[in-house]
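Researcher: Please translate sequence to structure tokens.
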Amino acid sequence: YVLVIALVLIIGGSMVYDIVTKKDMVLQAVYVNAFPNVESSEFMADFEKTIEINTKKEETSLIDDFYIDMDAYTYFDAQNIEKLLVLCAAGTVDVCIVDESYLMHMAEGGYFMNLSNVFTEEQMTEYQDKLVWYDCPDNIAEGEEAIALEITDASKIVSTQSYPNSKCYFTIIVNAPNVDNALAFLDYLETP
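Model: Translation complete:
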């Protein structure tokens, strides 16, 4: 019985420690089909400085290992699609940077927020030539929505060579919990 009690105390203590020390996620970004040229922790630590979070209580995350090849579809691709869609549906992902090969697959599922609902009029004008408009048949809204912003030439995308062989797009997931920080992340990507 002593062993059982000791195990219960160890596991219980571990669970309490995890709950007490858990940080709030203030931004989770996902790169789909990017080259893993970014040291995620350093990259996000630099971003955290720009939004001045309390790193003792809050954190950010960049997941850059989602590879999905719709042309040579394998079990590995199916697993990554399932994992990505579960994360999005669970409301844990704020931003998805995606290459052109997978953009419309996610758009068809209605995963992207209408950027015209979060961009200012000035931003909509500034970005008008880089916005991707899409009319998702499953969306309640009538007509096309601005679902993505082409950011291939954004300073941080270029300097990290994350998407050297294709265009890439900034999207905000429709149920993103941290929209303000998602917009701050876009600013960060565009800042030299």
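Researcher: Any highlights?
Model: Residues 97 and 170 are 5 Å apart (CA to CA).
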